[in-house]
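Reply to dn_fold:

You asked what the input looked like. This is it:
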Amino acid sequence: MSCGDPHETDCSEVLDHLYEYLDSEMPPLDRDKFQHHFEECSPCLEKYGLEEAVKKLVKRCCGHDDVPTDLRAKVLGRLDLIRSGQAVPEHEVTAAPVTPQES
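and this is what came back:
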């Protein structure tokens, strides 16, 4: 996605690193660069707002559940594939049933 306008930071770079921005996992200089981009690029700002809303919704609805280790590994592996531009398998990601943890 690109708005077609020239920017100091390209739209594709911003979108490729959007979750790093959302999760505050980038250096302050990069965060400032992305913030400036959002101020001048409404399509990227819209995408940012949508992803931020989804992240908040997931946290609100699922933030209290323990994630099975194997499911977390599968999801992170799939995200790595997507980020690297590789094809993602069509089958669904499933996890083994959750068993209560001993106290």
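Helices lie at 11-16, 18-22, 28-40, 42-62, 69-84.
Hope that clears it up.
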